[in-house]
Amino acid sequence: MRRYVFAAPIPLYVRYVTCEANSKGNITFYHDIYGKDEELKQLLFAREEI
């Protein structure tokens, strides 16, 4: 682990992904260490009554 000290605060953006596609379109899946995939799946595929 590295530690950096800056004179002033700077914004930090973290991107958490559990899959990604390479330039050939192949998808690589990674272990969901934070358990966010299930929550996202529920939001994306939830069925609402019409």
Task: Give structural notes.
By secondary structure, the protein is α+β, with helices and mostly antiparallel strands. It has one domain (12-50). It is 20% helix and 12% strand. It contains 1 helix and 2 strands. The protein has one helix at residues 36-45; strands at 19-21, 27-29. The protein has a two-stranded antiparallel sheet. Strand 1 (19-21) and strand 2 form a beta hairpin. The longest helix has 10 residues, at 36-45. It is extended.
Please give the structural blueprint.
Elements: E1 19-21, E2 27-29, H1 36-45
Antiparallel strand pairs: 1-2
Keywords:
alpha+beta; 1 helix; two-stranded antiparallel sheet; 20% helix
Summarize the structure.
The protein is of the alpha+beta class and 50 residues long.
Outline type: extended
Mean pLDDT: 90
Percent of residues in β-strands: 5-15%
Radius of gyration: 17 Å
Uncertain segments of ≥5 residues (pLDDT<50)? none
Structural domains: how many? 1
Figure out the total of helices: 1
Termini Cα gap:
51 Å
Judged by helices, strands and strand pairing, the structural class is: alpha+beta
Order of helices and strands: EEH
